[in-house]
Amino acid sequence: MEGTAWLPQYRQIELALRARLEAMPPGERLPSDDELCREFGVSRMTARNAMQRLAEDGLVQRIPGRGTFSVAPPSHRHADRLMAFSHEMERLGRVASSRLLAREIRPSTEGEAAFLGLRPTEPVVVVRRLRLADGEPIALETAVLVRRTAGVVMAADLEGGSLHEALATAGLHLRRGNATITAEAATPDDVRLLGVARGAPLLVERRVIADVTGHAVEATESRYPGERYALDVRFEVEAGTAAAGSR
């Protein structure tokens, strides 16, 4: 897997399997965990972790006693899972690209400092991009990152490459986060960049992402035209809800 040696082993296997899935019809069997261990020379836990990530993205179905099988890709990203925009669009059979609108180091605002756990006006790195699929604007994205990412972010290819993979190259592996999703009306800036009508409904996702140590690294706002993007939501029914609702 030339060019991905800097990635964790499970991620290398995941990317290799994603490439295979693009040519697989639904229902085709994938290698077992044991077969992946032999093929890639990794532990069973590493192989299982790679396959589990594909299952969480809805790309494969794991059937106990039978194996793992390819499925038709879901139409939307799950709200409890964040993946690189390029990978998300590839999964949907679309060609992803980005237009870099701004990249700078500046003092943080009060809100940015609060989200990232910084002192007010502490420097942050700001990246603003227009994300496109097959040339159609899908999202207007503003990412604010802590100062220690500056060397990587300021030098990274942010139009043809992935911000998160650039961070991983430098040993900054993002792990968990939290997000708030709201509906907002399009602003004049949204109208100009996303090609929507003024006041059109947008899906707005604001998230904070932490690294493996639990320290906040990135606070991002993504603004999606309502008719071009959606999020699938997994949920469990709270105990007693079903009974109450049937009365």
Q: Would you kindly provide a written description of the structure presented here, covering whatever features stand out?
A:
This protein is of the alpha+beta class and 247 residues long. It contains 9 helices and 10 strands. It has 2 domains: 9-70, Winged helix-like DNA-binding domain superfamily/Winged helix DNA-binding domain (Arc Repressor Mutant, subunit A, Orthogonal Bundle); 77-232, 3-Layer(aba) Sandwich (Chorismate lyase), CATH 3.40.1410. It is 30% helix and 32% strand. Strand 8 (201-211) and strand 9 form a beta hairpin. The protein is globular, with a radius of gyration of 20 Å. The mean pLDDT is 87.
Provide a brief overview of the structure:
By secondary structure, the chain is of the alpha+beta class. Helix content is 30%, strand content 32%. The protein folds into 2 domains: 9-70, Winged helix-like DNA-binding domain superfamily/Winged helix DNA-binding domain (Arc Repressor Mutant, subunit A, Orthogonal Bundle); 77-232, Chorismate lyase (3-Layer(aba) Sandwich), CATH 3.40.1410.10.
